[in-house]
Write a structure and sequence with these properties.
About 35% of the residues lie in helices and about 25% in strands. Strands 1, 2, 3, 4, 5, 6, 7, 8 and 9 form a nine-stranded mixed beta sheet that branches. It is built from eight helices and nine strands. It is globular, with a radius of gyration of 17 Å. It is of the alpha/beta class.
């Protein structure tokens, strides 16, 4: 029997329940996850650039992840897993909420994609290592950030690439991501907790403790003209790569 403390080292039951309640609406681009649908293309643009740079790939290739395995942790209902699978990855998605992985599996089957989904604590699932590990907007929701980053690092195969994104803990993120976005219904109330946001320096330290080197962060910013876009402005949200030191 696995140790219960270890088995639940990072999952907050209340956070898992919050996102499980959104499972059936996750794929609705005008529903409760509308902001994630807007954010996904920005993440994918960064990911594609990072993938090509890391593996010296051809930017015109339709399947840059062919022959590679990928893991998305905190996958929700699979918004990132499906495009990564289409890029050629042998794809696995893990989430704390069983309701999410059920919704993800139903959607991927309907899309003709072969993706393995699993629910539970990452360290307890018996997974191997992967060429690409992603975890987007998740680290703010875990019970122990250091344990979570260590679990992610353990899943990296030799020469692998990790990509993480998270809100930054700044006055601007408190005002816009929580005060404004939740007030007008752009994200469900209770989604974000500002005190749990990680600054780039804090994330860099967490990754270093796990033996990883973090890239210079790219901001994910918002403007009325561009919408969400990659930027040098880190005040709201940022995305990074990490590799073994």
């Amino acid at each position: 029997m696995p140790d219960a403390t270890v088995a639940n080292a990072t999952i907050r039951p209340e956070e898992a329940a919050h996102f499980a309640a959104l499972a059936k609406d996750w794929w609705n681009p005008k529903g409760s996850s509308a902001m994630l649908h807007r954010l996904n293309p920005v993440r994918l643009a960064f990911l594609r650039e990072a993938i090509d740079r890391h593996w010296d790939g051809n930017s015109t290739s339709m399947k840059p992840l062919a022959g590679k395995s990928a893991l998305d942790v905190g996958c929700g209902a699979g918004l990132l897993c499906e495009p990564l699978a289409r890029l050629g990855a042998d794809m696995t998605g893990v989430d704390a909420a069983a309701e999410n992985v059920e919704a993800a599996a139903i959607h991927s089957e309907g899309s003709g994609l072969d993706i393995r989904y699993m629910a539970g604590e990452l360290s307890s699932l018996g997974l191997g290592q992967f060429d690409l590990v992603t975890s987007m907007e998740v680290i703010e929701h875990v019970a122990d950030k250091a344990a979570f980053v260590s679990q992610l690092a353990d899943r990296l195969a030799p020469g692998a690439l990790m990509v993480l994104s998270t809100p930054n803990r700044t006055p601007q993120s408190r005002l816009l991501l929580i005060g404004a976005a939740e007030a007008v219904g752009m994200v469900p109330r209770g989604t974000h907790h500002w005190d749990d946001f990680a600054t780039p320096d804090e994330l860099r330290e967490l990754l270093a403790e796990a033996g990883l080197t973090m890239s210079e962060p790219r901001g994910i910013a918002f403007s009325p003209m561009k919408g969400l876009h990659l930027s040098s402005d880190l005040s709201l949200n940022y995305i990074v790569t990490a590799t073994r030191t």
